[in-house]
């Protein structure tokens, strides 16, 4: 008797056939907050994913997230620190996602981000990987003197890395310089225009994602980690931002939407250059109100005095060209609180 179309054997065969025909991606930093969601999103869209992690033995859960294979990779600030590993991993892949980060916040952060991003772009060129997607930051898009009421766009709004370094803002400076150097590697300037035809010839298509505050569930098991999630737990417990609502704004995105934007960059043939990884900018009054609605035990602190400041405005036309729908602020806050409860944080 032949198995039915819905039998496990047929479904497994279908998955294997689809996987054999699928495109292949490498996710560098696959056990990170964003990287693990990129792995999951790629797998859900039929990609075969190789993830790199420091120690595959302690990151087996990344396979549950969707990675077909895990490879060990350790990056360092020195130039070429990962070249040999990249040469072993990248051949035969269609896309590479750079989701790696650096925990130390000092001048070596710049060396780490710049040197490793450049190494990834060069390795992609050597092995004919079609597209590189870099995870960067909205901290590279703060043009000095730009007023909040004038919408920011990815082409014109660049931070000044020298000012960032002078102020000890090592991580934002690292992201700004990483982007500039990566664009130069593919023959482009900060407006994403080809200015070096020789460097552009044979270069991978380069996309850069610029998020700010990233919220949403963490795929890694165990304790809540990173920067944004523990901070949000402290806010919900009344341990942070408890004196007064800041008269300021914050741009946010759900980590699942950010992962979808990363993947859309790879899947959209004409995608190139920077994209805001942001769903919207909200006044803190709006964010804290949404958190209170999701978690009534959280008490919104007293309102600031005077007129509310204008939230930072964005031109999202480039992001919208990728065709990824964004969750609302309330949807993200609801899911965030639900996730915190599952981990016993609330």
Task: Give an overview of the whole structure.
The protein is built from 13 helices and 10 strands. With about 350 residues, it is an alpha/beta fold. The chain has a 7-stranded parallel beta sheet with strand order 3-2-1-4-5-6-9, sandwiched between helices. The termini are far apart. The N terminus is likely disordered.
Kindly report how far apart the N and C termini lie.
Answer: 53 Å
Could you name the ranges where pLDDT drops below 50 across 5 or more consecutive residues?
1-5
Order of helices and strands: HEHEHEHEHEHHHEEHEHEEHHH
- pLDDT averaged residue by residue: 93
Taking all Cα atoms into account, the compactness measure Rg is 21 Å
Structural class call reads alpha/beta
Report the helical percentage. 25-40%
């Amino acid at each position: 008797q032949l198995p039915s179309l819905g039998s496990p054997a047929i479904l497994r065969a279908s998955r294997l056939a689809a996987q054999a025909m699928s495109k292949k991606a490498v996710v560098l930093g696959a056990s990170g907050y964003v990287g693990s969601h990129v792995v999951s999103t790629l797998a859900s869209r039929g990609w075969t994913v190789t993830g790199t992690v420091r120690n595959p033995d302690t990151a087996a859960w990344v396979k549950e997230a969707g990675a077909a294979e895990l490879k060990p990779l350790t990056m360092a600030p020195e130039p070429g620190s990962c070249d040999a590993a990249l040469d072993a991993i990248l051949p035969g892949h269609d896309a590479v996602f750079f989701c790696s980060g650096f925990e130390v916040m000092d001048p070596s952060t710049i060396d780490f981000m710049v040197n490793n991003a450049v190494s990834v772009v060069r390795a992609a060129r050597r092995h004919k990987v079609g597209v590189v997607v870099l995870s960067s930051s909205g901290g590279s898009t703060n043009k000095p003197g730009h007023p909040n009421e004038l919408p920011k766009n990815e082409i014109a709004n660049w931070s000044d890395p020298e000012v960032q370094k002078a102020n000890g803002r090592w991580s934002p400076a690292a992201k700004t310089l990483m982007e500039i150097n990566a664009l130069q590697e593919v023959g482009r300037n900060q407006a994403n225009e080809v200015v070096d035809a020789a460097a552009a010839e044979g270069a991978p298509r380069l996309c850069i994602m610029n998020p700010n505050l990233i919220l949403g569930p963490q795929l890694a098991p165990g304790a809540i980690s990173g920067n944004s999630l523990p901070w949000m737990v402290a806010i919900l417990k009344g341990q942070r931002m408890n004196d007064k609502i800041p008269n300021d704004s914050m741009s946010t995105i759900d980590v699942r939407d950010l992962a979808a934007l990363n993947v859309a960059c790879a899947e959209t043939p004409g995608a190139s250059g920077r994209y805001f990884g942001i769903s919207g900018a909200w006044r803190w009054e709006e964010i804290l109100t949404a958190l209170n609605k999701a978690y009534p035990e959280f008490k919104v602190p007293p309102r600031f005095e005077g007129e509310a400041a204008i939230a930072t405005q964005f031109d999202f036309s480039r992001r919208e060209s990728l065709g990824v729908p964004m969750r609302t602020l309330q949807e993200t806050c609801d899911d965030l609180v639900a996730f915190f409860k599952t981990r016993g944080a609330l």
